Amino acid sequence: MSGSISDRVPDGAQIILYRDDRATYLHVYRPGGRFECHHGLLDLPAELHWGDVLRTRKGVDMAVLRPTHALTLNRIKRRTTVVYNREAGRIALELGVRSGGRYGEVGSGSGAMTTLLASLVGDGGRVYSREREPEHLEQARKNIARAGLSGRVDFELRDVASEGFGVTGLDGVFVDVPAPWDLVPAAHAALSGGAPWVSLSPTVDQIVRTDQALFRAGFVRRRMIELFEREWKLFPGRMRPADRMVGHTAFLLVASKVNDATFAAQERPR
């Protein structure tokens, strides 16, 4: 056991237990607690430091890593498909997420994107997450609580298409629902002038309908984005691309609100 006091893992912190890419686990640390997987039972010590290597009762070593967003977002407990890391990062960039900002989300899902947004807005910011399905909302609440971010998120069971966001002056809106075009009027009303809309949709048909709704509502700089990512195998002397990769997952549709819809009508197609 080694490490300074500042490297000590606090009680209740989320940790990554790492053996390899096929055995990477998100866990909440409790002094004297236990973790179990197919590599055996792991007894957690009363004092733990980031970077420590622990051994299971089957003799398998596992490292204790800090829980970066890339490692944790796809490992939270979920009822729905979560946003892939490659899209999550781009969504945060397109929204311009900053400390102290106020952002809306429709489609809380399992809370993966909510977790990223909440971690970026800081204690002075707020994420207003809206969901129509009670079981999804409850799972998202639990995941946010597990991440220690409950104080930054306002969850509400709400049909935004018919009831609106319930807040105004938002710095950005992220939408991940089957029919995002139905939410465009509510988003326009909730957003500050010049603020961004970002939606995630798996099919071109959804993008077309949403883009038409954004155009009519007075959104400009409308862009459709598809992202691909390929990992490489780090074998000394024979580095090469991985045998498999995740192909298409979804398209992003990005736009910005203007207060005068006639200006949007003047924008040339991209």
Blueprint of the fold:
Layout (H helix, E strand, L loop, with lengths): L13 E7 L2 E6 L5 E4 L2 E4 L9 E3 L5 E5 L3 H4 L12 H11 L6 E5 L5 H10 L4 E6 L2 H13 L6 E5 L2 H4 L8 E4 L8 H7 L5 E6 L2 H14 L1 E8 L5 E2 L6 E2 L9 E7 L3 H6 L4
Parallel strand pairs: 7-8, 7-10, 8-9, 10-11
Antiparallel strand pairs: 1-2, 1-6, 3-4, 5-6, 11-15, 12-15, 13-14
Rg on CA atoms, Å: 21 Å
* Helical run tally: 8
Helix content: 25-40%
Question: What is the H/E order?
Answer: EEEEEEHHEHEHEHEHEHEEEEH
CATH level 1 name of the largest domain: Alpha Beta
What does this entry show, briefly?
With 270 residues, this protein is an alpha/beta fold. The protein has helices at 69-72, 85-95, 112-121, 134-146, 160-163, 184-190, 204-217, 261-266; strands spanning 14-20, 23-28, 34-37, 40-43, 53-55, 61-65, 102-106, 126-131, 153-157, 172-175, 196-201, 219-226, 232-233, 240-241, 251-257.
Structural commentary:
- The protein is an alpha/beta fold and 270 residues long.
- It has 8 helices and 15 strands.
- Strand 8, helix 4 (134-146) and strand 9 (153-157) form a beta-alpha-beta unit.
- The protein is globular, with a radius of gyration of 21 Å.
- 26% of the residues lie in helices and 27% in strands.
- A 7-stranded mixed sheet has the order 9-8-7-10-11-15-12, with helices on both faces.
- The protein has 2 domains: 13-67, Vcp-like ATPase, Chain A, domain 2; 77-266, Rossmann fold, CATH 3.40.50.
